[in-house]
Amino acid sequence: SQQGEEDPQALSIQEGENATMNCSYKTSINNLQWYRQNSGRGLVHLILIRSNEREKHSGRLRVTLDTSKKSSSLLITASRAADTASYFCATDSPNSNSGYALNFGKGTSLLVTP
Amino acid sequence: ETGVTQTPRHLVMGMTNKKSLKCEQHLGHNAMYWYKQSAKKPLELMFVYSLEERVENNSVPSRFSPECPNSSHLFLHLHTLQPEDSALYLCASSQDPSGALNTGELFFGEGSRLTVL
């Protein structure tokens, strides 16, 4: 079953503005990851945050995690046209016997216009 | 060489054809994955191999048959597919999630876009 769910489904902003995407999940997790996907291409890992962490930064990316609300947010500051892509959150699966499965949401489609 | 390479990038096949998708990773990882990405649906995990042993099989129809001959190569053999199987098939690799070296990160290939007529 789907674990992570991103919100909004689509987001359109202008260059220089900040973009915030949210992810909600249903059951306990060990970690949560964010990935980016350019149209028709593979996914690229952006950042991982563990369940005992509340905030993490990587360049223009800031990720927060609230395990009490079972939610995470991804903030992209000072956005650029090159940030246009789909963004996915992924959580490790409590249903996985092997511990290998990651559950992905449907993604947020971000459009940054010049 | 890029980290994870998938071939072919595009494939069109009829429902009676037999074809294969290939994935190769040059990262020294020991786990490899097949995901299916359909329009407007979340990524679906299909199969996971760790040290050439299948460790996850998420109720995938038997018309999809994976093969992992070694830790660097992964195949997805396709036969008698249906039009609804048209999708982007993504291969990924990682370190063993239970290992000390694991960062939890998946490394994806560029995908194979499959169209079934």
Mind describing the biggest β-sheet of chain A?
6 strands, mixed
Strand residue content of chain B: over 45%
Number of strands of chain A: 11
Chain pair sharing the greatest interface = A-B, 27 and 31 residues
The general outline of chain A is: globular
- Regions of chain A with pLDDT < 50 over 5+ consecutive residues? none
Instruction: Estimate the helix proportion of chain A, in percent.
Output: under 10%
Listing every helix as H and every strand as E from the N terminus to the C terminus, the arrangement of chain B reads EEEEEEEEEEE
Q: Unreliable segments of chain B (pLDDT under 50, ≥5 consecutive)?
A: none
Mean pLDDT of chain B: 90
Report Rg of chain A.
14 Å
The total count of helices of chain B amounts to: 0
Q: Averaging pLDDT over every residue of chain A, what do you get?
A: 90
Strand content bin of chain A:
over 45%
Count of DSSP E strands of chain B? 11
Oligomer: heterodimer
Query: Distance between termini of chain A?
Result: 38 Å
Radius of gyration of chain B: 14 Å
Taking the alpha carbons of the first and last residues of chain B, their distance comes to 33 Å
Number of helices in the DSSP assignment of chain A:
0
